[in-house]
């Protein structure tokens, strides 16, 4: 070996040219310089890598060149990181540069980087001077194990990836694993997918290493070493994890090299490495570049393994192992992984689309698709890819399944269902502690058992291996000898409850090996850390074992001393869990003296499970004696003799009896025969009684031996109803019984009838616990059975099902499974006789029977097909039990923050915005404990309070719906357990909002309300508490809401409240994915944002409407903000608290979306360009504050960009790159690289250059046009005076300024008006004409209203009138002319006009009137369509909302003419449940009321004198002089109409200005008046927005109208 490093060499194509190790740079350059002598060495790398390694590389070259006496040149060329560099243009650039540098044929090129660099450099080497030598130095894991090995080189073209290239073998491949330590973790996982894949097809022993050492391997790949460290260079100083990493990586390289060697030109064998790639590539084609190759392959591996499983060539065990292994490396394993579903493109992952992409895979021959089928871990079914039919792939890819109903073709069937979980876990412990080799068959392969095996192996208690492709586990027992794990190694148990309980006692009998490692630590995930284990720990501690809690009391993590178990008398409280009892029983024989176990606490829970443990111990040779009392009654005292278990040679794990009910029920329902071969009358599982106690009375023939059960069903359609049946001992089987009962129509057996129940009724009771399983199963069964037309009823602890003849059941039901395996399998039974039933979420069976659908087909003989659900269908059925708005998130929303921060105020408004409920956790606490918080604390203590509080939190997380808003107590973050719960909630996609306010404001607020008795007082200084909790609140939350208490910018308290309400609505709907609040950037309509350049925006708030005229968004330049209000002069950023406050302030004065930009010095701003922490913190604030757009500069390292992209939530990223140097050319390669990078990270791409001349704008336009097909909105402009043209041309979010701003944000920036008039002059913004149709309209102020708006913004539009009472030819001509921009429609044409339109909104249809015509141009055909809408009702709603405080609405509408319909509709949309309607002629009112649906709750009243309810919104639709306050003329308006606690009175009459209703409202306390002219303005604003897509400049439009109106 070399004295420079220890390397492992692998041969490829006959040469030992692959060298692997750690810290190889000196070795690499020594080898190259001495064996590949040359005059010139050229190193190609990317800028990420050069920043990290170039100085080390240069030093290593120079040192070794000196030693070797070489005078060679060392030239370096850097490209931009990313796939963009793999193109012909960059290849050309490098070649030209090499020619300039006079490189000749003897040049050696070194590729230093990932696959991109390797492929590009290899191709250059292959063609430069007809081929020169080259060396691969891969730096990503993917490159080491895949792309660098095999000689494939290529570049991409716009037609596709890798289309131009060559085979060219490198002289060396140096895999230096130390480079992996700087690789982002996601890239490590990316490569791991290939490593796992290779082991799966070729090396089962490597696979075993990979699956059991994931932590160590990941650690070795990611642990950064201190600078200068060369740890691992020599074998002697390699850490254990490093050796493992080297072993699996070289193992993988070896396989690839071997396959390449025997099959260099890709015939059959080489295709094996495509395992996972056929489906994986199709997924990648849709999700690239957001998902990486390896991530897509990981999902592909599982799906292709499922294809093999379905074809019957691969066992479920193998699929389970693959799944767990990939998950262990943090890779996605299904298309429903949140990392995938979060990507917008994932909506295109339809089955047809994927199959279509696979069709053109170059590895296919003809139309048939080829997939590499695994036959077991480490081996493929054929030595090549196999042809697989489409329907098989379709079945795997589909989320839903349909069962082809029919008689099971395999009857009579004999089968075993998956093993019981309880028995599997016990068998593992017994065999591990026992003597001899035990072959355990039918073990359940679940997370639980995997955790148990890993832990026992870690304790060196036993050895596990697999036989029959994993169907048999071979356990080599350790006879009870166990060793403390290495120091620092914890036994991680996830959420495996049984494993935690059993292992707690197992760890007490571990042997002490050395004094330094005498303790074992067991821990689990956050949920596990909530699950109690106290009674067991108490019992063991009393017996002298040393156990201590490391975090919360009574829960894991636990530190357990290796002191052995003393034995003797142990007392255990057994009323909580029988698993404590079993845990002690199982380990008891290994105590120092014989154990007498006494169960205390009265009632013993789940005795059958204790009996199960004792029975199994007897099978392993230890007989437990249960003591009897004087009268022979059984006592809860057990004697366990000392001894060692003797394992039987084989142990068959009994099937899970609940699973067995499904095949037995299929026999029952189809009239066939099924035998379950390993469950019989001796079974200790309650559900084993299902055959005898449910199926037999239904008319089945049941034969049960001690170990087997056979059921033969009666002829089809002849099942008996059950009458009354107690299913308490087998509650899980009630779903199976229910589907049978659905078609059981014969009368029940004598003695089972229930009085008063119809003969076809089955009344199942004793199943109350089923309401709190995966879902409320009783409710679920009722809802789903109803889809078949089956009637049901329910009572406290049960369900009643009324059977129906089979042929009367409805066909074609689509079953929602509530993510509950038992619902899915039960309905599979029913669908075997009811045609066309669809089971919507077939994957939910994975919990207990992952290959259920395959078994149904292969073992029972009932075919299953995949069906693809319609997108909408799937999403609407996702929350059938939630009422109201459906939210994208299933999890409830939590509010945290200091008491006094306004959680209740905000929470109420949030719940209303989401259409859900609001809960104050304090109320739940009081309800549960029957005590107020302070009383509870007084009677108990704080710790106990926190414990109960946490329990409530965990319950609410599990139970509440997605639109439920819950305010938590201020101190909830005080315990680490609760913080962990909240963090987990956020991690799993939940929303936790930190409601905040400045400290002084909270204190002031609390003082103002005085201290309330219901909450405990602060024991310590308030500001100290605030300081302690603030970072916790921040860390546990996903979002931050800054609560502004005081009105701003001269707003009144009511206006302020209205603004807060609007912002709450926006904020909470935005973070719940219900709205984006962003303009449509793909419409082609030019958009812009105003760049705010204030240091403090507060002085400008009152002006904000004017400043933002015509803008589609507002940019907050965070780096320009400064607390002292002066423009910054040194690099840095203001405090996040200041920014948060500024942002929330801005929100209250503008409804426009915010662009949150932090511009660094290098990119033209004031933030430091080197302080990535400060930058990231600030960008995060933007994301957490729910900004619609967040700017992300591409100058930062990949890891930062990745992090932001991952956390972006609902925000859109504007990925930006600014070139201030003028060096970037729009036709050069840098801009292409930057574009690719921006497109990777951004939802909007923003590239800003600097124009040297006007011509540069042409190059820009061409570049933009070339990227059009990519589809991402692209903001491209040039700075400087010469660049102004580009600002006019750019259609996407052009940054604009305003004359009233202190400075322009960038040189050359134009105002919005300048941009628009520029566009107009260039023909990009043609003039348009707008009209008012109706009669009489001569006096209308609408033209003034809209023309003022158009002029203010700078749009070349004109609004005129056409007076007519017919939709005549002129109207037709106007609306079809090309310059038609839109029209307002008034009396008498509002109904008639509909005939001329292509579409009419639903609102307008219900109201029966169109007042707005909007031409829309079809983006594809370019044809114009006319759409009709109604903005009257929107104006009424808006006016009412502004005057109400979110209270329940009761409406009164006066008048039953045409306009009343808009008023009624608006009230209904406001949530009014009761609407009073008055008209002088009651009959007219009656007929209006009749025409609305009953749910509108309209009551016709004949007099205004006494009202049946007090309205808070009163709307008059009668002419302005009809109502009168004085008796005499007109309809008298009694003062009592405006009573109660106040409200809003709206008069739709336009004249007089102050009608009777308006006058009365102005005089009445608590009432707000809205005049007809105000409604006219509001409806006009909405029209303006529909026509222009821009916010109406309301203040100016209204001012103009009022002036004119009051003049007349
Ligand atoms: N030739 C083949 O047989 C073959 C096989 C598989 C893939 N490929 C090709 O490989 C390419 C993908 O390769 P990749 O996954 O290595 O991506 P990559 O080359 O783009 O590298 C990923 C990222 O990690 C950075 N990086 C690389 N090494 C680093 C290190 N040690 N520390 C910090 N950062 C580091 C890079 O700058 C880059 O940003 C694709 O173009 C693909 O087509 C080729
Ligand atoms: Zn691959």
Automatic annotation (TrEMBL):
Location of the 3-dehydroquinate synthase N-terminal domain: 78-189
Query: EC number(s) in its UniProt entry?
Result: 4.2.3.4, 2.5.1.19, 2.7.1.71, 4.2.1.10
Keywords for the protein's UniProt record, in alphabetical order: Amino-acid biosynthesis, Aromatic amino acid biosynthesis, ATP-binding, Cytoplasm, Kinase, Lyase, Metal-binding, Multifunctional enzyme, NADP, Nucleotide-binding, Oxidoreductase, Transferase, Zinc
Q: Where is this region: 3-dehydroquinate synthase?
A: 1-390
Task: Describe the location of the Enolpyruvate transferase domain by residue ranges.
Answer: 416-856
**GO-annotated cellular components:** cytoplasm
UniProt binding sites for NAD(+): 46-48, 83-86, 114-116, 119, 139-140, 161, 179-182, 190
Q: Which PANTHER family match?
A: AROM/DEHYDROQUINATE SYNTHASE (PTHR21090), PENTAFUNCTIONAL AROM POLYPEPTIDE (PTHR21090:SF5)
Q: What is this protein called?
A: Pentafunctional AROM polypeptide
Q: What lineage, starting at the top, does this entry show?
A: Eukaryota, Fungi, Dikarya, Basidiomycota, Agaricomycotina
